[in-house]
Amino acid sequence: MIGKADRQMSFSDYWLLGKISEVSYYHRLRTWVFNNLNEEMFQPLFSYYGRESISPVYTFTAMLIQFEKGYSDREMEEESRFDDRIKYALTAPRDFDGIDAVTLCDHRKRLFNSEIGKEIFIKTISQAKEVGLFNKDNLHIIDSFMIWGSCARQDTYTMIYQGIKMVLRFMKFYEMEDASKKILKRTDYEENIKKPKIAWENEKEKAKLLEELVKDALSLVENIKTKKDIKDDLKKAIELLERIALQDVEITNDGHVKMIKGTAKDRIISVVDDEMRHGRKTSSKLSDGYKAEIITGGEKGSVVVGIEVDGANIADGEHMSDLIEQSRRNGVDIDKLYGDCAYSDFEEIEKRKEEGTDFCIRVPEATNPSGGFSKEEFKIDLEKGTVECPNGHIKQFDTEKTQKHEQVTVKFRAEECNDCPLKDQCTKSKKGRTINIHPYEKEIQEQREYQKTDEFKEDYAKRPNVERNISELTRHGGRKGRYRGKLKIRWQMIMVAINNNIKVIMKHISKICNRQIKKGEVCPKTA
């Protein structure tokens, strides 16, 4: 049964008034919560009968504070009992007994599977519009940042071993463990170890262990698949086991198992959190976990208006279309969108331009990994359908394909390239140089020329505003995942975005107040 917040003030509470700065996070959060959150919003999470819980207004606010300050559940429990600033921000009286960690965990679990966090996020966007944050200085920017996973990356041996143990625990729960004993060759799956102990420097022992683990895993999978009425959790566990058992190995015709070279596409990196992925933001920045993509808007692009979360291996720009649509559903129409090279998706750009959205997107410069002539050194005439190399050789291509936005590949003959005095500056291939004509080559050429102008440079200089937003989000709960799985990580990012938007809104209201006080007018203290 839902509990009610105690808003009755005592003499002790009056003593606290004025002692906490009005520009502090605690005061601004209290003001916003007092005027925007109530128990009715959280009623779908609770029964109408039974013992009263702590007010979900208190717990939701406590979770916002956790992300802002980096508190664990145990730390939040202690702070909510002894720190007057926390009680003040919660809108609780000074004699409040605090929120225990178990209650925080229980209420959070309820919120994970609800739309309440999303609804409050949209509410902050509407408020930002109401207080005037979307004006002539409105700036929409799209960008992404990495979220570190809460689990460690595991090697192939550990994943398969732990995957088998996980399936065996489910089988034991459903009283199927006797069948597993007849299937498995190894007998150490009940031991409390991460992976078997062998001489890891011995390649023969490693190969033998790999073969045993893979065969045990696949035998277990095949045996369970023959059963009827498999429970959903067990079914999910065997599907995961089958995937991790096969993603890094090859089974030869004679039945032997060997490790393959390279990395499987969309490779699982942890049994504990099978939605984590290995990715990189740049060539030098590696990350295991997730990636968040955001669109910001409002004055100087300070308000988060859309957010998506995916595995860290997803390319930047993957969710550009989804984010534009999400922003519209959240009540924000994007007249112009700024982004870096990752968002130079001209198919999407052309589609959105027809809908009235303009773009300030940078396209990457043409490069040649071998250090020779780049594509820009070749004269590409899209009207005549010709490509001229730096030494004057000309090749024709089909202009009908480029007009239909189809990619075209132009190949210079090996004889021409091998006899060319500029070959060492062009290509190392004995088969000659190849030039790919992009489906949107015309638009790319035009954009590269425009990027050289002062007009573009002045306009594009607005884009770095998003870096300040990302810094704020990652410093206050957005850098490291607290939970496992996309659903929960997305909820975390929504909470972080709510916190950001509340701070931006309340700061903007303070600015308005200061201006009105100077004019002798009444100040609107609330959002």
UniProtKB/TrEMBL annotation:
Domain Transposase DDE as annotated: residue spans: 389-505
One Pfam entry name: DUF772
InterPro entries tied to this protein: IS1182_transpos (IPR047629), Tnp_DDE_dom (IPR025668), Transposase_InsH_N (IPR008490)
Residues annotated as domain Transposase InsH N-terminal: 28-110
Signal peptide start-end: none
NCBIfam families the UniProt entry points to: transpos_IS1182
Name of this protein: IS1182 family transposase
